[in-house]
Amino acid sequence: MKPESKTEAIVLCVISAIAMVLIVLQLAHNNWSVDLWVVVLFGVGALPWFYRVLESVDFPGGGGLKLREVKQEQARQAEEIQALQFLTANFLRDEQKQVLRKFGEDGPVRLEDGEDGEKLITAANALIKAGLIGKRPAADTDEGQEKSHRENDLKIVAEITEAGRDYLALLERLPTK
Length: 177
Prior knowledge:
Blueprint: H1 6-29, H2 36-46, E1 54-57, E2 65-67, H3 71-89, H4 94-104, H5 115-130, E3 133-135, H6 142-151, E4 158-160, H7 162-173
Antiparallel strand pairs: 1-2, 3-4
């Protein structure tokens, strides 16, 4: 496990370095033969790097190492991996994210005239293909199309899907740059 701060890393390195120096001195004193002190010093030098995963260490005559439960960390990492897999599989450009956010909010998704309207339609079509928004039944009727144009609202013919809501929730959880 990695140290959580620079100070912790320095302390861990100092403890290990002191143990290493003592090991070399002990080996030199014993004509380079390994004895019990060398083994103990090696354990002392390595122990700081494993203290977060070890619950207890028993010495000869009574047992062994007891590891801490790391299920929470594993669950958190599994959740992050799943989120990254989902986001990678459904990678969106900024315009598409903006349109998806509009579909996720209350209120209409206004169709602008000109270039912005074309970008919105292109982004909405890409989101439909990705399964993040879906067509409403009104999308396939002339009446629904007319109402969407008359009220200038794409939400009449399309709506955000559960996958789209999940995508937005995952975006919210990711750290911002």
